[in-house]
Recover the amino acids of this structure.
């Protein structure tokens, strides 16, 4: 499948954004989907993952602020981001954790 991320933008610190990842085909059979991010000058890092059954995993700095969800019927994966901080500024990528990546969506948090 191909993945298309959207929903990024400019937001003030403390604000919220919801990212969405739309797959071109069914994700029902894909065990785990996830979001990663890459800040300027830094390595790509894990944000969150979700299994087909709904089990989630978050990087420590995102716990309690970010929520990942997936809709197997609509072939989408979402990332709700609350209490955003300047250090959350990055390009966010969705992935099927099998080597397929979306094109990335830029999130900029102003302090």
């Amino acid at each position: 499948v191909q993945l298309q991320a959207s929903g990024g933008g400019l937001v003030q610190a403390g604000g919220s954004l919801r990212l969405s990842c739309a797959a071109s085909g069914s994700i029902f059979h894909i065990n785990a989907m996830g979001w990663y991010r890459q800040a300027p000058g830094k390595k790509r890092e894990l944000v969150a993952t979700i299994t087909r059954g709904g089990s989630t995993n978050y990087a420590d700095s995102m716990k309690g602020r970010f929520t990942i969800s997936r809709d197997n019927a609509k072939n989408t994966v979402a990332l709700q981001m609350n209490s955003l901080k300047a250090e959350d500024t990055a390009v966010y990528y969705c992935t099927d954790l099998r080597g397929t990546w979306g094109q990335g969506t830029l999130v900029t948090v102003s302090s």
